[in-house]
Recover the amino acids of this structure.
């Protein structure tokens, strides 16, 4: 499977669903819904820990390391065993489709990249980056109904994903192709041709017009449930959306500025962005006139609005075990 796997690596709201739909429209690529197959394996004791799991993570970590020390072949044998498991799942997904390649687009893999590279060092990794401020504003609007402070307290997306992906781009020795979202949507054919050459498959025009492909071929499932499904091909309409979302909202602009200040110049440049340019864009946000028209309501946005309101109310009026369980459920659903 290693030579038949394509990974899309990107943060939430980076455009990875769009890229997966385009690649999944290729007749030789199967792009199922996000499988989240590697993240649990990366936290079972050797490479990471799950402190809330129903076992003692410290004992487990010590036991696993002792096991590897006594295991013939050590870590290599352990990785082969893990790869047999993931290969079996990937092969089962791919076999009925008769496709040559399987595409795994799971944003959480960006937080376990060292493990992914150990497990599949010869697979191809397409790394997608996007203007970090656009990512953050899209994340807040899509999942937290525009509440920047609550969103940051729940999940500091940029502080988690920007350094992790930047380090992977700089240091990893696996096959990597880096593309910026802004470049992809402005010239999709050029960049899809480059990805196709990197991936070892032919370019097909149907990848650009992904909306004409059969639904089962375009990776429906987790990911952007609104915009990508509504469009039939890449569009540049989203490039300036984040500045309109911030218009007339000085507290949101200040939130973005604080987050940007905490990101390293080297990481931003590795992503393909200069701090001075991002700061200039942020400074250009209209300070008055009220915020731009809110995004059209959908079932997804209404569900998110309800979850955020419920979580916020529970946070301020928390009581009892049931309420804590409801809040935990909200946290899981808002990821």
């Amino acid at each position: 499977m290693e030579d038949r796997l394509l990974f899309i690596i990107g943060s939430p709201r980076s455009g990875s669903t769009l890229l997966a739909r385009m690649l999944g429209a290729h007749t030789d690529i199967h792009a199922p819904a996000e499988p989240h197959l590697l993240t649990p394996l990366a936290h079972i004791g050797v490479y990471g820990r799950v402190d809330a799991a129903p076992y003692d993570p410290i004992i487990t970590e010590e036991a696993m390391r002792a096991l590897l020390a006594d295991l013939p072949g050590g870590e290599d044998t352990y990785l082969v065993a893990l790869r047999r498991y993931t290969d079996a799942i990937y092969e089962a997904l791919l076999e009925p489709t008769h496709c040559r390649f399987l595409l795994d687009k799971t944003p959480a893999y960006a937080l376990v990249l060292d493990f992914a590279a150990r497990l599949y060092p010869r697979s191809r990794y397409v790394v997608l980056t996007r203007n970090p401020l656009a990512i953050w504003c899209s994340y807040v609007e899509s999942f937290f109904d525009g509440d920047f402070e609550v969103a940051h307290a729940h999940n500091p997306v940029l502080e988690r994903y920007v350094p992790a992906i930047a380090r992977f781009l700089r240091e990893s020795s696996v096959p990597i192709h880096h593309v910026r979202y802004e470049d992809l949507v402005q010239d999709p054919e050029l960049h899809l041709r480059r990805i196709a050459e990197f991936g070892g498959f032919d370019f097909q025009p149907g990848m650009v017009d992904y909306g004409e492909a059969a639904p089962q071929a375009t990776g429906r499932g987790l990911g952007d449930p609104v915009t990508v499904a509504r469009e039939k091909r890449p569009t540049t309409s989203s490039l300036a959306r984040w500045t309109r979302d911030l218009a007339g909202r000085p507290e949101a602009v200040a939130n973005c500025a604080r987050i940007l200040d905490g990101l390293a110049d080297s990481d931003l440049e590795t992503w393909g962005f200069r701090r001075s340019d991002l700061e200039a864009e942020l400074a250009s946000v209209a300070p008055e006139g009220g915020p731009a028209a809110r995004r059209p309501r959908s079932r997804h946005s209404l569900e998110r609005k309800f979850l955020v309101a419920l979580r916020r109310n529970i946070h301020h009026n928390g009581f009892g075990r049931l309420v804590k369980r409801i809040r935990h459920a909200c946290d899981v659903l808002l990821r």
Notes: Confidence is low (pLDDT under 50) at residues 216-221.
